[in-house]
Amino acid sequence: MLSKKYHVVIFKNPCDNARKFQLRGWIFFFIFALIAGLAGGNIYLWKYYQNYSGLENNLARAEKAVQEQKAQLISLSQKMQNISQDLDRVHNFDSKLRVMINLDQGNVQNVAPKGGSTGADFSNSYLPLYRQELLVRKMHDFLAQLSTEAKLEEVRQQEIIHSMRSKQDALDATPSIWPAEGWVTSPFGWRSSPFTGKREYHKGIDISCPTGTPIYAPAKGTISFSGVQGGYGKLVKINHGANLSTRYGHMKQPIVKKGQEVTRGELIGYAGNTGRSTGPHVHYEVRLGGVPVNPMRYILN
What we know:
This protein is α+β, with helices and mostly antiparallel strands. The chain is built from 4 helices and 14 strands. Strands 3, 6, 7, 8, 9, 10, 11, 12, 13 and 14 form a 10-stranded antiparallel beta sheet that branches. It has a two-stranded antiparallel ribbon with strand order 1-2. The chain has a two-stranded antiparallel sheet with strand order 4-5.
């Protein structure tokens, strides 16, 4: 059949001569096979294209889900970091209270999450990990450690509350609030003198504020001095008992007298620029047994 000859006659119109072609049978078979192969190839490519489109759509959805999970993990890590910072602030507050009421801090333990300090940037420490399963596992460990720290802090607070109830008088006489509203321009400790430029030890903190800003007693006590004293200018001293005293220098005008009893939050005078001063401010000192100590260790608000 493939070797037979077939004649093909083509007529343009009845008047013209006809054209005749002679073809072998295998040519028809080849043309048919070619057409069938092209049709089958098109069907195969169409199915392949559909499968590829489906995979591409699935990949796009998977990438979107991964991005959403990544955003959620970042948000979670930031929240966990904020919780860790809040616990650090509570712990610092705990330490200040213990100093104020003379409570032993030897039993206080600071439990940090395994693998790093609670003060570290959690997002920088954990987010670069490529495996999300490991990241989630570390977050669960971190949360477990934070939960443990919170429970221990609750125990510490209960201990402090119990001690405060038994030492209420001592707490009332502890300078725990700011004496004036303003901002600290010179902290406690070594500094460069604003007058000579030489290194000197600053015995208190300088709270910069406008002239006439009210100054309040940070705790109850007795006025032991109210007047002018050398570089302090107009000065007020308060004896809070238990060898604890405070000083307020460069005042514009004290309104209390020696021997007067004051309570926490009571007005004792106004800020000024008297004495050895470069501008209106309050020089605030806290002394323990006559020795200057950092006032910030007592301030709670």
